[in-house]
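LOG
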Amino acid sequence: MEPLHRAAAGEPAGPEATLTPLFAWRAVRKRWVLLLLTTLAVTLAVTFFTLGQKKIYRASTTLQIDPTPPRPLGRDVQSVVDVGAGSYWANREYYETQFKIIQSRRIAAETVQTLGLHRDGAFLANLPAGWIRPPVGEAG
């Protein structure tokens, strides 16, 4: 009953009652093997768990068509065509033209050739990346 009475009076109950850096260091030195093995086990478990997860990739893009592009040579240099100096209808026509160019068959064909998509069976069958297209004669 004595330690409880002293602790209630505001005095520490014993030398281990307060956590000091020296006390913590002694505890670590006494159990260093257990701490090392626990750290190693947790690190290995997290590593294998992370490597075993299915990889999920997500990409997004923003296409910005700017009718008033920056002028790195200064304001004094005249551009060939000033597309941003028109009215609402001129800007609208500019944007529609840019979208038609981006959606054109020529741009699509160059993209397919550059990325080699015409040789990718999974792409042609609209399968997720990394899948192999099954042979045509088999039913799946």
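LOG (cont.) second protein
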Amino acid sequence: PGPIHGAPTYHMIILAPGLDISWFFDTAQTYWDLFRPIVTTQVELIDFIPNTQSLAVTVIAAQESIDTLRSAISGRYPNVYFDVIVADSLGSVAQQFSERARRGLRFG
């Protein structure tokens, strides 16, 4: 992906290993209805975003795996905006997405 100028062209939510896509839709349905991000467990999908388009990635992961994911994504894709939601509990993730949707904020 290319650099972001203003708002990113695409928004992708990457679920860390162990999180299921259906879990995301149960947890963040209102957020998804509002913003319609790409939801995946595959970081490699970033390769399909052309360098003429920009991308922001929201990663949902446990605290101990965030640095690894940040390095993997930012190291390989330096133009990607990196956003994090720490998956301490299902309730806290749901609360963060609900608050973002309520405030109209795609990113934290």
